[in-house]
Amino acid sequence: MVWLFVVAIPLAGAEPRLELTKQEQSWLQQVEVIRLCTDPDWMPYEGIDEQHRHSGIMSDFHQLWADMLDKPVVIQVTDSWQQSLQYMEKGKCDVLSSAQDVASRRHYLTVTDPFIFYPFAVATQPENPFIIDLMPLMDKRFAMVEGYAGIEIMRKRYPEIDLLLVDTASQGLKMVEKSKVYGFIDTVPSINYQTLKHGISLIKINGVLDEHYAMSIGIRKDLPELVSIYNKAIAATHDADRQRILNNWLSLTFQYHFDYSLIWKMLLGASVLLALFFYHYFMVNRHNRELQQVNRQLEALSHSDHLTGIPNRYYLHQVFENELKRYQRYRHSFSLLIIDIDHFKRINDSYGHVVGDEILKKLAQLLTENVRENDVVGRWGGEEFLILCPETDAKGGRALAEHLRLRISQTDFSLGTMMITASFGVTDYRDDEVLEETIKRADLALYQAKHDGRDRTIVF
Questions:
Q1: Are 376 and 318 in contact (CB under 8 A)?
Q2: How does strand 334-341 pair with strand 422-428?
Q3: What span, in angstroms and rounded, lies between the C-alpha atoms of 245 and 116?
Q4: What SS3 class is residue 392?
Q5: In terms of DSSP H, where are the helices of 304-374?
Q6: CA nearest neighbour of 159 among 130, 134, 122
Q7: Residues 122, 175, 443: CA angle, nearest 5 degrees
Q8: What is the edge-to-edge ordering of all strands in the sheet holding 41-42?
Q9: E strand spans, 356-448
Q10: pLDDT digit string (tens) for 4-36?
Q11: Residue 218: exposed, middle, or buried by beta-carbon count in 10 A (0-12, 13-18, 19+)?
Q12: Can you tell me whether residue 154 is helix, strand or coil?
């Protein structure tokens, strides 16, 4: 079945037409449509919805580029990513929505210049230690979606890695939840989206790796003109348009304003040469400012939990490293608090995941408002939160934990007769140990608090 989407997205500014060669123009004139294959289940990047429409970040990018090319795009609906690759190899598609340059595809696929980069992340069960490098875990089994370029990237970096290939991301995440594999490897936005969509709560993102996806477009090997055309469309894409598309799917806010009247006043009030000079200067300066703002927004995105808005596990790890350096230089102690909402599964089962998400957001706000300015509150994963307290020993950490525990138990979360309580595990950093040992101690203290009846603080 073939579906056609109509493109009507305005560009960020007065975009010039793409400067195509005669050969490229001739190629476009000879084709009626561009046939596009996509991953039907890799949200928020891309997917096929229930109405068989292309959806996700990549759909917005392809709509924007189709508008630049003034050529309609036809979606070739497939059942899986593997089938989309087969369609490309058999010539049933001209374009693969997103792709990477991997050796196994080069006989039928060429890729464009990359336009977005996303690091790989690892989701495991909550009790597992934070992952900095996969090398010490080569005795564990990890799951990845079959056909993804990331498989070749990971096997090249870790030749001994034990990978189980699954059909969908949700299948891989559920296998982690059921302890059938140690971890699932994908990107942070994809893992977050799939866990929320399918109600997978007994996992958390436990590490962000140095390896990353370089998002490019895949083009059939026998269509070199189309590769060149898409590279020009990528180069002509405004940073503001990139940010707007990311905002649509990753919940960032970016205000984009431009006053064209200023340019017209300059053109009317100056000579042609002077106006051109100032116009060029203004555009370059504006582009640099936009690029800096986009980079700041993207950096904030990589550091924040998409549901609660507080720091995520990746950012917490960076804070740990900085605090460890301060300790090694000045010997200033610091403590860790790990907080787990008691009986959170009961809340999800009784009231649904939407209410559960609201509880997580309200608790994140409560914790943030009741710590010191230099304390760092972050979401550790699932219903767990972590607080790093600089200049604080275990005794001070316990005092803060007890204050927060009482505030939580006294707060009305609008669940009728059901009260919300939390258990706390507290420890402080000890000389000459790695951070994983400190985190493990706090985890053990939290486990003891849960075992002793919940709604209590245990200091290791």
A1: no
A2: antiparallel
A3: 12
A4: coil
A5: 313-330, 344-351, 353-369
A6: 134
A7: 55
A8: 41-42, 46-48, 54-55
A9: 376-381, 384-390, 422-428
A10: 333 333 334 434 468 889 998 888 899 999 999
A11: buried
A12: helix
Contacts of 302 (CB under 8 A, 6+ apart): 119, 188, 314, 315
Q: Is 460 helix (H, G, I), strand (E, B) or coil?
A: coil
* Contact call for residues 344 and 201 (beta carbons, < 8 A): yes
Instruction: Dig out the tokens for 51 from the structure.
Output: 């109405």
Q: Cα separation of 291 and 297, whole Å?
A: 10
| Spatial separation of the C-alpha atoms in residues 340 and 424, rounded to whole Å | 7
- 228-267 pLDDT per residue, tens: 999 898 888 887 888 788 777 765 333 334 444 544 554 5
Q: Is 312 exposed, middle or buried (0-12, 13-18, 19+ CB in 10 A)?
A: buried
257: which 2 tokens? 């304003």
**How does strand 422-428 pair with strand 457-459?**
parallel
Give start and end residues of each alpha helix (H) in 70-210.
81-89, 150-157, 169-177, 188-198
Phi, psi angle pair for 41, to nearest 5°: -150, 70
CA gap 321, 327 in Å, rounded: 10
**Cβ(366)–Cβ(408) below 8 Å:** yes
Q: Minimal CA–CA distance to 65: which of 213, 217, 214, 215? A: 217
Residues belonging to the chain: 460
Amino acid at 459: V
Q: Which residues contact 224 (CB under 8 A, 6 or more apart)?
A: 110
Give how far Cα 180 sits from Cα of 41, 187, 307, 335, Å: 22, 20, 27, 34
Per-block average pLDDT, block size 10, for the chain (460 residues)? 35 56 90 92 85 87 88 89 91 90 88 83 88 87 90 90 92 93 89 82 81 85 91 86 77 40 50 51 56 52 80 86 87 94 91 91 95 94 93 95 96 90 96 88 94 95
Q: Tell the residue number behind the tokens 């900085």, with chain if given.
A: 322
The structure tokens 């000890």 sit at 430
Q: What is the pLDDT of residue 283?
A: 56
Give the whole-angstrom CA distance, residue 206 versus residue 128. Answer: 8
Do the Cβ atoms of 347 and 359 come closer than 8 Å? yes
